[in-house]
Amino acid sequence: MTKAEIRQLYKAKRAQLSPYDISKISAQVQALVLDSFSFSSKFISIYLPIEQQREISTYGLLEDIILKGGHPVLSKANFNDHSLTLYHYEHPSQLEISAYGIPEPKYGRTLLANKLDFVFVPLLALNSEGQRVGYGKGFYDRLLKQCKPECIFIGLHLFDEFVSISDLNAEDIPLHICFTPGGIYDFRK
After folding, report:
1. Closest by CA position to 119, among listed 82, 51, 57, 72
2. What is the extent of the structural domain holding 100?
3. How much is the average pLDDT of 19-42?
4. Number of domains in the chain
5. Alpha-carbon torsion 128, 58, 23, 137, what sign?
6. Residue 130 DSSP one-character state
7. How far is 132 from 123, CA to CA, in rounded Å?
8. At what angle do helices 59-67 and 19-36 cross, to 10 degrees?
9. Which of 9, 16, 105, 109 falls 20 to 30 Å from 189 in CA-CA distance?
10. Can you give the pTM of this predicted structure?
11. The dihedral sign for the CA sequence 40, 75, 46, 187
């Protein structure tokens, strides 16, 4: 399937999930993440969920990163050049909902992508090699290119399934690992 077809299919699949389903899946996925990584003293770029897109909730992960001594980093999207500016997360009052429904920082200290140790990458679907289908603007592919080689790219997926993507291109950057309700997929092996 093409990325456009996959986007349409997975947006429809998400629309069938209830808030309870999303909450339950979010808790399962979060538990797997916390059992797999130590975030102490690490810089972690984490996205906050766009509620109308029915994304996995990452608020619990954000809290755990803080409690475990990690340094959460949030991004602000620039829709003119499709870039992300990174900000140290300090407090909920720092956040506002953008015109696109994205919880983003409205102020804060900025950070360069080459300082990140982990990047949580939003996705709609992925294939068995870790290539993902996002929302189609390339924000995260641009960000991941700026990260240091040892930075780990992490996906969080609502479904336990892979797709076949017919229109991958050289700009697409694969994930290193993905967490789903049913398990962990490590694409580095």
Report:
1. 72
2. 3-186
3. 94
4. 1
5. negative
6. S
7. 6
8. 30
9. 9
10. 0.94
11. negative
DSSP state, 79?
T
DSSP class of residue 167 equals T
Report pLDDT for 137: 83
Give dist(CA 10, CA 167) in Å, integer.
17
Amino acid identity of residue 177, one-letter, is I
Strands 177-180 and 83-88: unpaired
- Percent of the chain whose pLDDT exceeds 90: 89
Strand ranges (DSSP E) for the chain?
A: 43-45, 71-78, 83-88, 95-97, 103-105, 110-111, 118-121, 125-126, 132-133, 152-156, 177-180, 183-186
Mean per-residue pLDDT for 103-120? 96
Phi, psi values for residue 91, rounded to 5° = -165, 150
Q: Which helix (H) or strand (E) holds 29?
A: helix 19-36
What's the CATH code of the domain at 71? 3.40.50.10420
Higher pLDDT, 100 or 127: 127
97: β partners: 103
